[in-house]
Here is the input.
Amino acid sequence: MAELTLIVGHPGAGKTTRAKALAAATGAVRLTPDEWMVPLFGHPDPDGKRDVVEGRLIWTATAILRAGGSAILDFGFWGRDERAALAWLAASVGATAHTLHLPVDRVTQTERVARRQRETPS
Here is the structure.
């Protein structure tokens, strides 16, 4: 059955690492705006464009679910209402949805974000 996975967590929680592993293990399509922003706009967060990219990735995930595939959205999803709306959207096309929450302690988060800034500042 088609399944939508929402990866939830703050920056540095390991969302992308977990999403990549999950995609490799399940064959689901992984969609993350972080990998689209700089190639498309030359900046990680130009005014208002992230919302547009996220919307198009949600549209793409819905098409994948409708076709019987599975998708992983690696956005953060801090708001409960946003997660509920996406679970409803998945159900509306006959898919299931689940949330994978990745907690991170402040020290680990700070170290990971600092390392990311050093290694890939964009």
The two ends are 37 Å apart (CA to CA).
